[in-house]
Amino acid sequence: MAFILRRLVFYIIAIFVAMTFNFILPRLMPGDPVAAMFAAAGGKMPPEAILAYKEMLGFVDAPLWQQYLQYLKSVVTFDLGPSIMLFPTPVTAVLSNTLPWTVFLAGFATIMSIFIGCFIGLYAAYNRGGFVDRYVPVFWQFIASMPQAVTALLIFFVFSLTLKWFPLGFGFNPDLEPSWAPSFLVNVLYHAVLPMVTLMLSMIATWVFTLRNAMVNVLGEDYIAMAKAKGLPSRRIMTHYAARNAILPVVTAVSMALGFAVAGQVFVETVFNYPGIGQLIIKAVAARDYPLMQACFLLIVLCVLVANFIADILYVWLDPRLRT
Amino acid sequence: MKKLLSLLSGIGSFYRGNTAGIIGTTLVAFILTICLAAPALTDYDPNKRVARGHEAPSAEHIMGSTRAGKDVWSQTLYGGRVSLFVAFTAATVTSVVALSVGVSAGYFGGRTDEILMAITNVMLVFPQLPLLIILAAFLGNVGPLIIALILGLTSWPWGARVMRSQTLAIRNKEFITAAEIMGESKFRIIVVEIIPNLISLAAGMFVGTALYAIGAQAGLEFLGLGDPTVVSWGTMLYWAQSSAAFYVGAWWDFLVPGTVIALVGGGLALINISIDQVSNPKLKTGSFLKAWRRQNATVEAKRQRG
Amino acid sequence: MLRTTLCISALALAAASMAQAQAAHPQGGTLTVPIITATFVEDFNPFSNAQEDLVRGTMFEPLWAHNVMQGDIAFRLAESFAYADDLMSMTITLRDGLTWSDGETLDAQDVAYSLNLGKDDATLDKTGKWADGLISSVEMIDPLNVKVSFSRKDSTLDWYLENAYIVPEHIWKDVEDKITFKNSNPVGSGPITEVTTMRDNQVEICRNPHYYKASEGLPYLDCIKFRQYSDNAQIQPALMAGEIDWGSNFIADVDSTFVAADPENHGYWYPANDLINVYLDTREVPFNDVRFRRAFSMAMDRDAIVDLAAYGYPTAATHATGIGEYYAASFNDTINAKYDQYATYDVAAATALLDEAGYVDTDGDGFRENPDGSPIDFDIHVVNGWTDWVQSVQMVTEHLAEVGIKANTKSVDWSVYDTALKEGTYQASINWSVVGVDPIQAYNDYFNPSRVGQSWHANHGFASPEMGALIDEYGTTTDTARREDILATLMDYTGENMPFVPLFSNPTWYQYNAARIGGWPTAEDPRVQPVFYSIGRKLITFEGLYQK
């Protein structure tokens, strides 16, 4: 319990750091940052909107700490200002539509990769020195080393454009009205197959190695030797004794992996026109839409922190030693 | 002289029977060599238009040409210098910072440890690519050196944690206590006693960061956040994408930089795996395990029969 | 007789006969069009710019549309306009019986109201003519006539009134903040006004139930489907697969990707649009020497740049007098002949001119120095991300190197580029020029001192009060002979001084898919310049489309 609380405090501090980062960045730009930010907007933004945004960022006539407080207040109340490229739509409205898609894609892809990777890693550890153990992890590592942009484009070109087995893009067919009907959900899954496969290709390698190495370490422990001495069958030792303990490093690695999953989204979403935060942040950067960029960044950090927190809770549930 | 010989024999023993390490090092060394020897291997200036656009690989242009008519082979070689430079610079920066932070935290403990670990943990949790994207956007067009620096300055937390836990493990060993009693300066203890024991971990961290940096740099430049007038593997991908190389069938424009990045990345990963195996021999795998497996199977069978 | 009256009767007859011919097509069908955006939002306000391409032209019709390609004016909401004899006002006469999509009458009150919006709020002044002080007042004379009064003599306002949005007064008068107003249930005057689908990735807008041309059977198409794409790279495969009907973006290797996918139905046409120049800061050495500028221009292999950097889509510039193929109707052959040599690729002539002017390589580094010995090394600005332009500039530097001049490609952020051009702090910069209704608009942006600091094209050092006076005079006269004279003087001035180096004319990006829809403008049937990102031309193009 104390562990969970400590982690919670830690995450709150991390969010503050992210917000402070957002606060500092514009002030690092040469010249008048607000003017530079809105130069891209041309004459589109009326002076009142620019003024409102200045206030939100804390560029008021007050000492720096007051500016900081002003900024924190606006973030906490979700008053993040209007998007420049989609003016006058507020940033929060733009973001709220992309969040579910990102969570869906990253979450699903990570979970699938964990299952597949762990399965392969387990098998490799089970058959030490066998074909799988010797070559398969290394093979996955090479696949993961290919730049994600290239993998995504290759898959898109082969399966979407040439073979036409999968759609060219979008989260769902634009002609369909979103609903909870099974036909629509199937369509969503159909559109998610290629992006997910691309994401998984770069993530599986990590899990293969994590679990295999953890298993191998665990298999050398005394209690495993004890289990063998007791006469338990190998399979039971693998699943009930070794794997349960080898899972712990996997859970720790999940938090790192989530950072990568959200990061990897950017390329996949750009190539497949998937409506997530990744492609939004790229568009915002291209349009120099600073309000949107900063909000995207905060949201991504928030997602990763929440996922880490869930991983922490899982860790406590799995490892009784932490429950004291 | 003796030290050099023992160093060499140490390296030699690292590679003996270590297939992964040998393949990995060969790959990386090969690519590094050809990039450094670029002028000898190609006559074409990577920045000049020397062919028609999107010419297929031929005797004259072994890897074909880009949309702008530049030789892909020549760009791969000269661009490789830039990309590898960024990767190794980032790895160096990360290693230096991670070592400093991790060892200080582990050795000095107390307040220093708490503060340093707090910073490390917070940075660890931040998703890196969005951070890099935002930084690149605010800084404007970033050239390779700046990319290397921001990569290096955002990748150290993981290594710092590892260094710290290892330092903690060594810290209370007797030879450290002995050195302290003898009155050796803190600095000397750190550099002469502790760090040499971290070499394999530090090597792993260096290689791992280089591996990450190669991919991250290519990614940033592919998205257009780098300086498009500099020739590097990442900008080659950027230009290939903007000239729709895939759709027009000019696969070489895309696959050549992609493959060479994968090869370097894979090679570095193999080196990393082999370092892991050396520091933790239990992780070894290979043909020598066949005998063990056979024996293991017989023992298992005996156990089952009771 | 200085009254400018457009031949209403002739045009009305032409329009009527065209309508007769067009009525042959049955109604129905949907046009699918790509829009580059991160996501669609429920905002149909033309003033906010959020989703201008969804509303302009087809939802809010203009008063008239200039068809420069055909050299005439298509009257839409207005039936005619006339300048007063003293050129101090203009009277606009509307068609009778116009209605909004909600059934209310569209009359001069709406027009006067809409035009007056720009008086107090510059962001609502799409014509820009309140802001520059031309319009002094707008009033309704009777339900079908509006009088616009000027503060000075003018005969050019009709070029700019096309850009004004005529909005329904009965709705907008109750709107507090006209920029943030969402206009989610838009009421418009154009053929396509009813929003039937509003999703993040697709917006569908359909037929106006009270369209004033419904009796002619227009529009033929029922709906326009606007589909979201993040960038060009995503539009290209969609075009190739036939998911889009009308493309308006750069497509790499269009012949072997798009056309090859369906040679019967997939086509494209890239008529010349704005002229692209390399602007030089003529106050700086060595750009202050016209011989250097001319040598620069003669060192440019424009055909190679067009072919290699831009796939051959643009039209290479052949004249050095300031306007490109878009204004071909206004070319002056005599003056062009005087200066064409300076826009022709001639390395020998360039080298000779540089040698003669004293730019020689004094230190043996392979690059020339200024006559005073200082090195020549300058940057050419281009916006980061505009890949075909970045490549063009790279080729420009290559060509310069061939004649011994050292130049560098400097790709910068939009804001840096924008400021440098407007304030004249660049050394060299690649940029477009103004295309509109009349070539004087291009010269206005080049040489009128009032545009220095406002326009990207004016701060090269050759804006001058004399030229400014001539340009202003053009706008106050309707004497065609005098106008021709003024243009000739300006062309001569440009050719003589060459403050910018012409490269090529940007293409109008236009791809069409004739599998489902017919009536596309093509090179064989150039009924209008098919610019999607416009008001009038988009409307005219759309009106001719029908379902097959």
Give the topology.
The complex is a heterotrimer of chains A (324), B (306) and C (548).
Chain A lengths: L1 H27 L4 H7 L7 H11 L6 H13 L14 H36 L4 H15 L2 H15 L19 H38 L2 H9 L3 H39 L4 H10 L3 H29 L6
Helix pairs in contact in A: 1-12, 5-6, 5-8, 5-10, 5-12, 6-8, 7-8, 7-10, 8-10, 10-11, 10-12, 11-12
Chain B lengths: L1 H14 L3 H18 L1 H4 L30 H37 L1 H16 L2 H12 L4 H11 L1 H16 L2 H9 L3 H37 L10 H10 L8 H29 L9 H17 L1
Helix pairs in contact in B: 2-4, 2-12, 4-5, 4-7, 4-8, 4-10, 5-8, 6-7, 7-10, 8-10, 9-10, 10-11, 10-12, 11-12
Chain C lengths: L7 H15 L7 E7 L15 H4 L8 E4 L4 E4 L2 E6 L5 E6 L13 H13 L14 E8 L2 E6 L6 H5 L7 H4 L19 E7 L3 E6 L15 E7 L2 H9 L5 E2 L6 H8 L4 E3 L3 E9 L9 H9 L3 H9 L4 E2 L16 H7 L7 H10 L20 E7 L3 H16 L3 E7 L1 H10 L4 E4 L8 H8 L17 H10 L5 H18 L2 E8 L3 E3 L3 E2 L17 H8 L2 E2 L1
Parallel strand pairs in C: 1-10, 15-16, 15-17
Antiparallel strand pairs in C: 2-3, 4-5, 5-7, 6-7, 8-9, 9-10, 11-19, 12-19, 13-17, 13-18, 14-18, 20-21
Helix pairs in contact in C: 6-7, 8-11, 9-12, 10-16, 14-15, 15-16
Note down, in words, how this protein is organized.
The complex is a heterotrimer of chains A (324), B (306) and C (548). Chain A has 324 residues and is mainly alpha-helical. Helix content of chain A is 77%, strand content 0%. Chain B has 306 residues and is mainly α. Chain B is 75% helix and 0% strand. Chain B contains 13 helices and no strands. Chain B has helices spanning 2-15, 19-36, 38-41, 72-108, 110-125, 128-139, 144-154, 156-171, 174-182, 186-222, 233-242, 251-279, 289-305. Chain B starts with a helix and ends with a helix. In chain C, helix 8 (290-298) packs antiparallel against helix 11, helix 14 (440-447) packs antiparallel against helix 15 (465-474) and helix 15 (465-474) packs antiparallel against helix 16. Chain C contains 17 helices and 21 strands. Chain C has helices at residues 8-22, 52-55, 108-120, 157-161, 169-172, 232-240, 254-261, 290-298, 302-310, 333-339, 347-356, 387-402, 414-423, 440-447, 465-474, 480-497, 536-543; strands at residues 30-36, 64-67, 72-75, 78-83, 89-94, 135-142, 145-150, 192-198, 202-207, 223-229, 246-247, 266-268, 272-280, 315-316, 377-383, 406-412, 428-431, 500-507, 511-513, 517-518, 546-547. Residues 1-14 of chain C have low confidence and may be disordered. Chains in contact: A-B, A-C, B-C. At the A-B interface, helix 1, helix 6, helix 7, helix 8 and helix 10 of A face helix 5, helix 6, helix 10, helix 12 and helix 13 of B.
